Amino acid sequence: MKKLLTAILVAVMVVSSVLPVAAQENASLPEAIKLAKSLFSTDSFTQFWSHQETYNGRTTYQLYWSEENGVDKSPAHLTVRVDAQRLLITGYNYQPAYQEQAYPPLPKMGENECLTVAEAFAAKLAPEHFAQMKLEKVDKPQIRIEKRSGPLSYIFRYVHYINGIAFQPNNMHVSVNGDTGEIQDYYLTWEDYEFPSTEGTLTLADAQEVFKTKGLKLVYSRRYSWREQTNKPYLAYTLENGSAMQIDAVTGEITYGGYRVYNTSLTKDMPAVMGLSREQAFTPWELEEIDTVAGLLTVEQGEAIAREIISLSEKAQLRSSRLMEDKSENLRFWNLEWEYMIEDYYVGASARLNAADGEIQNFHFWEKTSPQEGEPKLTYEEALAVASEFLQKWLPAKYEDTELTSRYKHQDGQRLPHTYSFTFERRINGLPVVGDSMNVNVQYDKRVTSFYSNWYNGEFPSAEGALTVEEMNDIFLQNVGLKIEYVHHFDSASSSEFNVYSSARYAQPTIKLVYKANELNSYSFNPVTGKSMDYYGKDIVPVTKPEYNDIAGHWAQAAIVRLVDLGLLRLEGSEFRPDEAIKLGDLLMMLSDASGDQNSEPILPLWLKKHNTSNYADALWYGVARGIIREKDKDIDPETLVTREVLAFYLARMQGYSEATSLKGIWTAPYSDFALVSTERQGSVSIVHALGLMGSGGNGQFLPKQEATRAQVAVILSRMLDKTN
Question: Looking at the domain assignment, is residue 716 inside a domain?
Answer without folding.
Answer: yes
